[in-house]
Amino acid sequence: MLTIISCLILVSAVFYLYHTKLLDMWIAYVAHGMRSNGAFMRVALNALAGVALLLFSKIWKKKYNDFNSWKSFATINFIMFALLIIFNISTLVDRLTLYLFPLQIVVFSRIKYLIKDKNLKNLYYLFLMLLYTAVFTCLLFALHRDSYIPYNNILEVLL
Known about the structure:
Blueprint: H1 2-31, H2 39-55, H3 57-63, H4 67-87, H5 90-97, H6 102-114, H7 118-141, H8 145-148, H9 154-158
């Protein structure tokens, strides 16, 4: 109960502090109908990581002690996927899903340690190669590829 109250207080404080910025984002992303063409693929990749997490949940719990944290990420991502499909608010969902990408990194990097069968592990490696070939193809040939990379970051400033 204390956790729920703490979350409500935190959400209320964030909304109070940033309500004008949040309203501007809502108007830009939803009311004006802004669309992100690659949103479905990015959200689907996270959903795939969430499904993989749930499929390997028994083994995951035995080997790692952070299942509940990643299950929360997966649950939020499933909600984002549903919002994308039902309401077609692709830009809003796409922006929020960026914060859930660590799910892919953790799940896809750890699954190889959970698969015992050599043939299944080889199939998994093939799956990863195909999956990220598609991602890199989108990064290289997407319509708005110049908007993805580079973001302003410390490496760009130093170099």
